[in-house]
């Protein structure tokens, strides 16, 4: 089914003095789509989000939002909402008062109270609606920022790290809200450093590195870009598993601390493409070695991100830290 474009950007450039934040960026986001925007710190994500929210203007290139060309003025069409670098809130006011003030500024007098209450309910803040937000956690502030965006019934929702600071229940709540908006036809653009959020929410993703697009397309296609992966292997016989891994074509054993291979290590880490990993399992079973655990050290989506942005791979020392945390 064809979906109309909510965002169409071509050749977008933006500089701050000698610093090039965006260098010829193309971006396409369809209505009803959750589109992820990811990249290392300094990649240009915040700048691009700011352009979508009318907080900045591009130096060159073209940008259409909800079918309307965006010129060189700080403005975007009606129907755009969201936040960047965290929501702007009044700490001395309650959650309800914050939303009521925003609704009044937007001229939403008719049914304002009902709209505020509905937004608070959607993000799960009804029980703390009359608490001053100076005592709110980071996650609660993020949810209130989402509620503020929902007041306008947006057709394009732009969110910067919406799951930042959320506990598992809060993250699940926010994910449900975002997925529901997309199902109703709202386009959502969100930035996140968490690959699990992207996998759970996004149908497509754009990866930025040093202001340029290094990937744009379906999440499944991004995962396929991971190439070689590191896998953690636990077996019934670590020494035999080490020998089998060394003899498996296309597979390498990742050295442990100090660059030393340890056949007696409880965890064997191997690196290679998926077919080589599959061949390892076949050979281990053939050698009467039971495979007790086989899991990627880094999820395929995260591995693809690391490869595309040139930020490296996780070695076994990092693995130990991850497991101990």
Automatic annotation (TrEMBL):
UniProtKB keywords: ATP-binding, Nucleotide-binding, Transport
ABC transporter domain: residues covered: 7-235
This protein's name: ABC transporter ATP-binding protein
Similarity comment text for this entry: Belongs to the ABC transporter superfamily.
Transport is among the record's keywords: yes
Gene3D superfamilies: P-loop containing nucleotide triphosphate hydrolases
GO molecular function: ATP binding
SUPFAM superfamilies in the record: P-loop containing nucleoside triphosphate hydrolases
Biological source species: Actinoallomurus vinaceus
Listed InterPro entries: AAA+_ATPase (IPR003593), ABC_transporter-like_ATP-bd (IPR003439), ABC_transporter-like_CS (IPR017871), P-loop_NTPase (IPR027417)
Coiled-coil residues: none
Statement: the UniProt record of this protein carries the keyword ATP-binding: yes
